[in-house]
Amino acid sequence: KRIQELEKKMLNAEKKKFEAQQRQIIKIREALFPLGVLQERVDNLMPYYSEYGRRFLEMVYQYSIGLKNEFCIVEES
Fold first, then answer.
1. Residues contacting 65, CB < 8 A, separation 6+
2. How far is CA 8 from the centre of its chain?
3. Rg for the chain (alpha carbons), in Å?
4. How does pLDDT run along the chain (77 residues), one tens digit per residue?
5. Phi, psi of 70 (to 5 degrees)
């Protein structure tokens, strides 16, 4: 009986851990794909340009990967 209780506790702990990881993944997905589409289709360029100026466009160009089917994530500091 004690083994069964221990197994139940371990299972519950794993479920909580999995749920926490799942919430993190959903949060990241919502940040990268607001409204279910790519971020650049929702966000406007102007707030970034007004804050960083021409450097922003240079950075976008530098990290642009062209027509490849890959994503590039650039973080604000």
1. 72
2. 32
3. 21
4. 899 999 999 999 999 999 999 999 999 899 888 888 888 788 888 888 999 999 988 988 888 877 777 877 778 77
5. -135, 160
What is the reported pTM? Answer: 0.55
DSSP for 14-74 reads HHHHHHHHHHHHHHHHHHHSGGGS-GGGTS-SHHHHHHHTHHHHHHHHHH--TTSS-----
Q: How many CB atoms lie within 10 A of CB 56?
A: 16
> Which residue, among 21, 64, 47, 61, has the nearest Cα to 29 in the 3D structure?
21
Q: Show the tokens assigned to 42.
A: 């929702």
Distance CA 1, CA 3 (A): 5
Tokens, residue 33 = 């794909």
